[in-house]
Amino acid sequence: MSPTSRLYDALNDFLRQCDMQWQDARHLQTLCWMIIGMIGSQNVHLNGFGVYVRSRAQMAQSHQRRFRRWLSNRRINVASAHHALIGQALSNWQTQRLYLSLDTTVVWNCFCIVWVAVVYRGRTVPVAWKVVAQSSSTVRLWTIQRVLRQAQRLMPEGVAIVLLADRGFADGKLMKYLRENLGWHFRIRIKRSFQFQHQGQWRQVSSVQLQPGQAYFTPAVSVGRTKPYDNVYLAFAHDKLSSENWTIVSDEPTNLQTFAQYRLRFQVEESFLDLKSNGFNLEASRLRDKVALSQLCGVIALTMLFLVLQGVQVVASGKRRQVDAHWKRGMSYLKLGWNWIRLAITHQWKIHVYQFLSCSPDPQPAIASRRQHDDSLKREFTVLSRIPAS
User: Fold this and answer.
1) Of 29, 35, 296, 334, which sits with the fewest C-beta atoms within 10 Å of its C-beta?
2) What are the pLDDT digits (tens) for 108-166?
3) How far is residue 49 from each of residues 52, 66, 199, 244, measured CA to CA in Å?
4) Domain of residue 98, residue span
5) Quick check: 120 and 308 in contact, CB under 8 A?
6) Residue 134's CATH number
7) Which residue, 242, 191, 248, 235, is CA-closest to 212?
8) 321 contacts: CB under 8 Å, gap ≥ 6
9) How far apart are CA 38 and CA 134, in angstroms?
10) Number of folded domains in the chain?
Protein backbone atom coordinates (compact mmCIF):
# COMPACT_ATOMS: atom_id res chain seq x y z
CA MET A 1 0.00 0.00 0.00
CA SER A 2 1.41 3.40 -1.00
CA PRO A 3 1.71 6.19 1.62
CA THR A 4 -1.20 8.10 0.05
CA SER A 5 -3.57 5.14 -0.41
CA ARG A 6 -5.30 5.65 2.95
CA LEU A 7 -5.76 9.35 2.20
CA TYR A 8 -7.17 8.51 -1.23
CA ASP A 9 -9.69 6.12 0.34
CA ALA A 10 -10.71 8.74 2.92
CA LEU A 11 -11.15 11.45 0.28
CA ASN A 12 -13.10 9.08 -1.95
CA ASP A 13 -15.49 8.34 0.94
CA PHE A 14 -15.68 12.03 1.85
CA LEU A 15 -16.57 13.16 -1.67
CA ARG A 16 -19.09 10.37 -2.25
CA GLN A 17 -21.21 11.76 0.60
CA CYS A 18 -22.48 14.54 -1.67
CA ASP A 19 -24.69 12.16 -3.73
CA MET A 20 -23.45 13.85 -6.87
CA GLN A 21 -23.64 11.72 -10.01
CA TRP A 22 -20.23 12.04 -11.63
CA GLN A 23 -20.47 11.68 -15.41
CA ASP A 24 -17.24 9.73 -15.41
CA ALA A 25 -15.65 7.88 -12.49
CA ARG A 26 -12.29 9.28 -13.58
CA HIS A 27 -13.50 12.80 -12.74
CA LEU A 28 -13.83 11.82 -9.08
CA GLN A 29 -10.49 9.98 -9.15
CA THR A 30 -8.70 13.02 -10.56
CA LEU A 31 -10.30 15.27 -7.94
CA CYS A 32 -9.05 12.98 -5.17
CA TRP A 33 -5.51 13.07 -6.57
CA MET A 34 -5.60 16.86 -6.91
CA ILE A 35 -6.54 17.24 -3.24
CA ILE A 36 -3.80 14.77 -2.28
CA GLY A 37 -1.36 16.82 -4.36
CA MET A 38 -2.40 20.03 -2.58
CA ILE A 39 -2.06 18.47 0.86
CA GLY A 40 1.26 16.84 0.07
CA SER A 41 2.93 19.72 -1.77
CA GLN A 42 1.24 22.49 0.29
CA ASN A 43 0.78 24.28 -3.00
CA VAL A 44 -1.61 24.48 -5.95
CA HIS A 45 1.09 24.40 -8.63
CA LEU A 46 -0.10 21.59 -10.90
CA ASN A 47 3.47 20.51 -11.70
CA GLY A 48 3.95 19.45 -8.08
CA PHE A 49 0.95 17.10 -7.89
CA GLY A 50 2.32 14.32 -10.07
CA VAL A 51 4.75 12.89 -7.50
CA TYR A 52 1.79 12.02 -5.24
CA VAL A 53 -0.30 10.30 -7.94
CA ARG A 54 -0.50 6.58 -8.61
CA SER A 55 -1.42 5.96 -12.24
CA ARG A 56 -0.12 4.42 -15.43
CA ALA A 57 1.28 7.77 -16.56
CA GLN A 58 5.04 8.01 -16.17
CA MET A 59 5.79 11.55 -17.31
CA ALA A 60 5.25 14.63 -15.13
CA GLN A 61 3.82 16.47 -18.12
CA SER A 62 1.11 13.81 -18.46
CA HIS A 63 -0.07 14.49 -14.92
CA GLN A 64 -0.05 18.23 -15.53
CA ARG A 65 -2.13 17.90 -18.71
CA ARG A 66 -4.57 15.63 -16.89
CA PHE A 67 -5.18 18.19 -14.17
CA ARG A 68 -5.41 21.11 -16.61
CA ARG A 69 -8.00 19.27 -18.71
CA TRP A 70 -10.00 18.51 -15.56
CA LEU A 71 -10.01 22.16 -14.47
CA SER A 72 -11.09 23.32 -17.94
CA ASN A 73 -13.84 20.70 -18.32
CA ARG A 74 -17.16 22.56 -18.18
CA ARG A 75 -19.07 19.30 -17.62
CA ILE A 76 -17.51 19.02 -14.16
CA ASN A 77 -19.24 21.12 -11.52
CA VAL A 78 -17.01 20.96 -8.47
CA ALA A 79 -19.03 23.76 -6.83
CA SER A 80 -22.06 21.44 -6.62
CA ALA A 81 -20.03 18.84 -4.74
CA HIS A 82 -18.72 21.49 -2.36
CA HIS A 83 -22.17 23.01 -1.80
CA ALA A 84 -23.58 19.61 -0.85
CA LEU A 85 -20.77 18.92 1.61
CA ILE A 86 -20.69 22.37 3.25
CA GLY A 87 -24.49 22.27 3.53
CA GLN A 88 -24.18 18.91 5.28
CA ALA A 89 -21.40 20.22 7.55
CA LEU A 90 -23.63 23.09 8.71
CA SER A 91 -26.88 21.10 8.91
CA ASN A 92 -26.52 20.35 12.64
CA TRP A 93 -25.89 24.00 13.55
CA GLN A 94 -27.95 24.66 16.68
CA THR A 95 -26.75 28.02 17.97
CA GLN A 96 -28.93 31.07 17.44
CA ARG A 97 -26.66 32.86 14.99
CA LEU A 98 -24.23 32.08 12.22
CA TYR A 99 -21.84 34.75 10.97
CA LEU A 100 -20.86 35.04 7.31
CA SER A 101 -18.03 37.16 5.96
CA LEU A 102 -18.22 38.78 2.53
CA ASP A 103 -15.00 39.96 0.91
CA THR A 104 -13.01 40.06 -2.32
CA THR A 105 -9.42 39.33 -3.25
CA VAL A 106 -7.53 40.05 -6.48
CA VAL A 107 -5.03 37.67 -8.09
CA TRP A 108 -2.46 38.63 -10.74
CA ASN A 109 -4.32 41.94 -11.24
CA CYS A 110 -6.49 39.94 -13.65
CA PHE A 111 -9.21 38.26 -11.61
CA CYS A 112 -11.30 39.27 -8.61
CA ILE A 113 -12.69 36.50 -6.41
CA VAL A 114 -15.88 37.28 -4.48
CA TRP A 115 -15.78 35.09 -1.38
CA VAL A 116 -18.51 34.28 1.16
CA ALA A 117 -17.45 32.15 4.10
CA VAL A 118 -18.64 30.99 7.52
CA VAL A 119 -16.76 32.54 10.42
CA TYR A 120 -15.53 29.55 12.39
CA ARG A 121 -13.14 29.40 15.35
CA GLY A 122 -10.59 31.98 14.25
CA ARG A 123 -10.81 31.39 10.49
CA THR A 124 -13.47 31.18 7.82
CA VAL A 125 -14.74 28.16 5.89
CA PRO A 126 -15.69 28.88 2.24
CA VAL A 127 -19.37 28.65 1.33
CA ALA A 128 -19.70 30.29 -2.10
CA TRP A 129 -17.50 32.20 -4.52
CA LYS A 130 -17.41 33.74 -7.98
CA VAL A 131 -14.45 34.65 -10.17
CA VAL A 132 -14.78 37.91 -12.12
CA ALA A 133 -12.37 38.90 -14.90
CA GLN A 134 -11.32 42.35 -13.67
CA SER A 135 -8.40 43.98 -11.87
CA SER A 136 -10.52 45.94 -9.37
CA SER A 137 -11.72 44.56 -6.05
CA THR A 138 -15.00 46.50 -6.42
CA VAL A 139 -17.70 44.36 -8.04
CA ARG A 140 -21.22 45.09 -9.21
CA LEU A 141 -24.22 44.52 -6.99
CA TRP A 142 -25.75 41.76 -9.12
CA THR A 143 -22.52 39.75 -8.84
CA ILE A 144 -22.62 40.01 -5.05
CA GLN A 145 -26.30 39.06 -5.03
CA ARG A 146 -25.60 35.97 -7.10
CA VAL A 147 -22.98 34.73 -4.64
CA LEU A 148 -25.22 35.53 -1.66
CA ARG A 149 -28.10 33.56 -3.21
CA GLN A 150 -25.81 30.55 -3.52
CA ALA A 151 -24.86 30.90 0.14
CA GLN A 152 -28.48 31.29 1.25
CA ARG A 153 -29.43 27.90 -0.20
CA LEU A 154 -26.81 26.24 2.00
CA MET A 155 -27.72 27.84 5.32
CA PRO A 156 -29.32 25.66 8.03
CA GLU A 157 -32.99 26.27 8.77
CA GLY A 158 -34.02 28.22 11.84
CA VAL A 159 -30.64 29.94 12.28
CA ALA A 160 -30.29 33.73 12.10
CA ILE A 161 -27.63 34.79 9.59
CA VAL A 162 -25.46 37.88 10.15
CA LEU A 163 -23.38 39.15 7.23
CA LEU A 164 -20.15 41.01 8.00
CA ALA A 165 -18.59 43.21 5.32
CA ASP A 166 -16.05 46.00 4.93
CA ARG A 167 -16.48 49.55 3.61
CA GLY A 168 -16.43 48.52 -0.04
CA PHE A 169 -19.84 46.87 0.42
CA ALA A 170 -21.57 49.77 2.18
CA ASP A 171 -24.50 50.27 -0.17
CA GLY A 172 -28.15 50.91 0.61
CA LYS A 173 -29.30 48.57 -2.17
CA LEU A 174 -27.25 45.73 -0.70
CA MET A 175 -28.62 46.41 2.79
CA LYS A 176 -32.16 46.32 1.41
CA TYR A 177 -31.46 43.07 -0.43
CA LEU A 178 -30.01 41.45 2.69
CA ARG A 179 -32.92 42.43 4.90
CA GLU A 180 -35.90 42.14 2.56
CA ASN A 181 -34.88 39.39 0.11
CA LEU A 182 -32.64 37.13 2.17
CA GLY A 183 -33.97 37.88 5.65
CA TRP A 184 -30.43 38.33 7.00
CA HIS A 185 -28.95 40.74 9.51
CA PHE A 186 -25.82 42.75 8.71
CA ARG A 187 -22.88 44.60 10.25
CA ILE A 188 -21.09 46.69 7.62
CA ARG A 189 -18.35 49.24 8.16
CA ILE A 190 -19.00 52.52 6.32
CA LYS A 191 -16.73 55.25 5.02
CA ARG A 192 -16.22 58.61 6.69
CA SER A 193 -17.80 60.29 3.66
CA PHE A 194 -21.11 58.46 4.17
CA GLN A 195 -24.11 60.64 5.04
CA PHE A 196 -26.84 59.86 7.54
CA GLN A 197 -29.96 61.65 8.73
CA HIS A 198 -30.10 62.34 12.45
CA GLN A 199 -33.05 64.20 13.98
CA GLY A 200 -34.09 65.47 10.56
CA GLN A 201 -30.64 66.79 9.68
CA TRP A 202 -28.26 65.25 7.14
CA ARG A 203 -24.62 65.06 8.20
CA GLN A 204 -21.44 63.21 7.26
CA VAL A 205 -19.99 60.41 9.34
CA SER A 206 -16.75 62.42 9.54
CA SER A 207 -18.61 65.19 11.38
CA VAL A 208 -18.93 62.95 14.45
CA GLN A 209 -15.74 63.77 16.32
CA LEU A 210 -15.04 61.36 19.18
CA GLN A 211 -12.21 61.46 21.66
CA PRO A 212 -10.10 58.30 22.10
CA GLY A 213 -12.05 55.76 24.12
CA GLN A 214 -15.47 57.24 23.35
CA ALA A 215 -18.42 55.52 21.65
CA TYR A 216 -21.84 56.66 20.51
CA PHE A 217 -24.85 54.68 19.29
CA THR A 218 -27.60 56.30 17.25
CA PRO A 219 -31.30 55.56 17.28
CA ALA A 220 -32.85 54.49 13.96
CA VAL A 221 -31.51 56.68 11.14
CA SER A 222 -31.43 56.85 7.33
CA VAL A 223 -28.18 56.43 5.40
CA GLY A 224 -27.29 57.58 1.89
CA ARG A 225 -28.65 60.99 1.01
CA THR A 226 -29.06 60.30 -2.74
CA LYS A 227 -31.09 57.12 -2.25
CA PRO A 228 -31.85 56.95 1.48
CA TYR A 229 -32.26 53.63 3.24
CA ASP A 230 -34.27 53.86 6.46
CA ASN A 231 -34.39 52.18 9.84
CA VAL A 232 -30.75 51.29 10.34
CA TYR A 233 -28.51 51.97 13.32
CA LEU A 234 -24.98 53.36 13.52
CA ALA A 235 -22.24 52.57 16.01
CA PHE A 236 -19.38 55.08 16.35
CA ALA A 237 -16.18 54.49 18.30
CA HIS A 238 -12.65 55.86 18.54
CA ASP A 239 -10.38 53.00 19.54
CA LYS A 240 -7.68 54.20 21.90
CA LEU A 241 -5.31 51.28 21.20
CA SER A 242 -5.29 51.56 17.39
CA SER A 243 -6.18 55.29 17.19
CA GLU A 244 -8.79 54.39 14.56
CA ASN A 245 -12.32 55.66 14.09
CA TRP A 246 -14.91 52.95 13.52
CA THR A 247 -18.42 53.35 12.15
CA ILE A 248 -20.63 50.29 11.74
CA VAL A 249 -24.11 50.23 10.21
CA SER A 250 -26.47 47.55 11.49
CA ASP A 251 -30.06 46.54 10.91
CA GLU A 252 -30.44 46.00 14.67
CA PRO A 253 -29.92 48.42 17.59
CA THR A 254 -26.21 48.81 18.27
CA ASN A 255 -24.09 48.58 21.41
CA LEU A 256 -20.49 47.73 22.28
CA GLN A 257 -21.14 44.14 21.28
CA THR A 258 -21.63 45.36 17.70
CA PHE A 259 -17.89 46.03 17.41
CA ALA A 260 -17.05 42.59 18.80
CA GLN A 261 -19.35 41.05 16.19
CA TYR A 262 -17.78 43.07 13.39
CA ARG A 263 -14.26 42.09 14.48
CA LEU A 264 -15.14 38.52 13.53
CA ARG A 265 -14.81 39.71 9.92
CA PHE A 266 -11.04 40.01 10.34
CA GLN A 267 -10.83 36.23 10.34
CA VAL A 268 -11.37 36.24 6.58
CA GLU A 269 -8.06 38.11 6.20
CA GLU A 270 -6.28 35.17 7.82
CA SER A 271 -8.14 32.80 5.50
CA PHE A 272 -6.98 34.81 2.47
CA LEU A 273 -3.43 34.35 3.75
CA ASP A 274 -4.12 30.60 3.85
CA LEU A 275 -5.44 30.85 0.31
CA LYS A 276 -2.34 32.68 -0.86
CA SER A 277 1.11 33.03 0.69
CA ASN A 278 0.57 31.18 3.99
CA GLY A 279 -1.05 28.05 2.62
CA PHE A 280 -2.21 27.02 -0.83
CA ASN A 281 -0.27 29.71 -2.71
CA LEU A 282 -3.08 30.22 -5.23
CA GLU A 283 -1.06 32.56 -7.42
CA ALA A 284 1.47 29.79 -8.09
CA SER A 285 -1.15 27.98 -10.20
CA ARG A 286 -0.49 30.41 -13.09
CA LEU A 287 -4.00 29.83 -14.42
CA ARG A 288 -5.33 32.57 -16.68
CA ASP A 289 -8.69 31.03 -17.54
CA LYS A 290 -11.71 32.13 -15.50
CA VAL A 291 -13.44 28.74 -15.61
CA ALA A 292 -10.30 26.85 -14.62
CA LEU A 293 -9.59 29.30 -11.78
CA SER A 294 -13.15 28.95 -10.48
CA GLN A 295 -12.82 25.16 -10.57
CA LEU A 296 -9.51 25.40 -8.72
CA CYS A 297 -11.18 27.56 -6.04
CA GLY A 298 -13.71 24.77 -5.66
CA VAL A 299 -10.97 22.18 -5.17
CA ILE A 300 -9.31 24.43 -2.58
CA ALA A 301 -12.66 24.94 -0.81
CA LEU A 302 -13.20 21.17 -0.61
CA THR A 303 -9.66 20.69 0.69
CA MET A 304 -10.13 23.39 3.33
CA LEU A 305 -13.41 21.85 4.51
CA PHE A 306 -11.85 18.38 4.72
CA LEU A 307 -8.85 19.66 6.69
CA VAL A 308 -10.91 21.84 9.07
CA LEU A 309 -13.14 18.85 9.87
CA GLN A 310 -10.00 16.85 10.63
CA GLY A 311 -8.60 19.66 12.80
CA VAL A 312 -11.82 19.95 14.81
CA GLN A 313 -11.70 16.24 15.57
CA VAL A 314 -8.00 16.41 16.52
CA VAL A 315 -8.80 18.99 19.21
CA ALA A 316 -11.98 17.20 20.34
CA SER A 317 -10.07 13.93 20.80
CA GLY A 318 -7.28 15.58 22.82
CA LYS A 319 -4.55 14.92 20.25
CA ARG A 320 -3.65 18.53 19.41
CA ARG A 321 -0.24 18.40 21.11
CA GLN A 322 0.84 15.69 18.66
CA VAL A 323 0.78 18.21 15.80
CA ASP A 324 0.97 21.60 17.56
CA ALA A 325 4.02 22.51 19.66
CA HIS A 326 2.28 25.39 21.49
CA TRP A 327 1.01 25.01 25.06
CA LYS A 328 -2.11 26.91 24.07
CA ARG A 329 -3.53 26.38 20.60
CA GLY A 330 -1.37 28.47 18.29
CA MET A 331 -2.42 26.97 14.96
CA SER A 332 -5.65 27.27 13.01
CA TYR A 333 -7.92 24.25 12.67
CA LEU A 334 -6.95 24.14 9.00
CA LYS A 335 -3.25 23.79 9.85
CA LEU A 336 -4.01 21.30 12.63
CA GLY A 337 -5.90 19.13 10.17
CA TRP A 338 -3.14 19.54 7.59
CA ASN A 339 -0.45 18.42 10.03
CA TRP A 340 -2.61 15.56 11.28
CA ILE A 341 -3.08 14.16 7.76
CA ARG A 342 0.66 14.34 7.11
CA LEU A 343 1.32 12.59 10.43
CA ALA A 344 -1.25 9.91 9.59
CA ILE A 345 0.41 9.33 6.21
CA THR A 346 3.82 9.00 7.88
CA HIS A 347 2.55 6.41 10.38
CA GLN A 348 0.13 4.76 7.93
CA TRP A 349 -2.84 5.35 10.25
CA LYS A 350 -6.40 4.98 9.07
CA ILE A 351 -7.86 8.39 8.19
CA HIS A 352 -11.45 8.80 9.33
CA VAL A 353 -14.07 10.89 7.56
CA TYR A 354 -16.12 13.46 9.48
CA GLN A 355 -19.30 15.17 8.36
CA PHE A 356 -20.33 17.99 10.67
CA LEU A 357 -18.82 21.21 11.99
CA SER A 358 -19.47 21.50 15.71
CA CYS A 359 -21.43 24.60 16.67
CA SER A 360 -20.25 24.50 20.29
CA PRO A 361 -17.86 27.21 21.54
CA ASP A 362 -14.20 26.76 20.66
CA PRO A 363 -12.75 24.54 23.45
CA GLN A 364 -9.23 25.87 22.82
CA PRO A 365 -9.26 29.42 21.41
CA ALA A 366 -6.07 30.27 19.56
CA ILE A 367 -3.63 32.64 21.26
CA ALA A 368 -0.92 33.45 18.73
CA SER A 369 0.35 36.45 20.73
CA ARG A 370 -0.08 36.81 24.48
CA ARG A 371 0.54 40.57 24.29
CA GLN A 372 -2.16 41.10 21.66
CA HIS A 373 -4.55 38.98 23.70
CA ASP A 374 -3.86 41.01 26.85
CA ASP A 375 -4.18 44.31 24.95
CA SER A 376 -7.58 43.30 23.61
CA LEU A 377 -8.82 42.90 27.18
CA LYS A 378 -7.77 46.47 28.00
CA ARG A 379 -10.23 48.10 25.59
CA GLU A 380 -12.57 50.40 27.47
CA PHE A 381 -15.13 52.83 26.09
CA THR A 382 -17.16 55.66 27.51
CA VAL A 383 -20.59 55.56 25.88
CA LEU A 384 -21.99 59.02 25.14
CA SER A 385 -25.70 59.66 25.55
CA ARG A 386 -25.86 62.26 22.78
CA ILE A 387 -24.02 62.95 19.57
CA PRO A 388 -20.95 65.13 20.25
CA ALA A 389 -20.84 68.65 18.85
CA SER A 390 -18.83 69.06 15.64
Assistant:
1) 29
2) 999 999 999 999 999 999 999 999 999 999 999 999 999 999 999 999 999 999 999 99
3) 6, 11, 62, 45
4) 80-269
5) yes
6) 3.90.350.10
7) 242
8) none
9) 26
10) 1
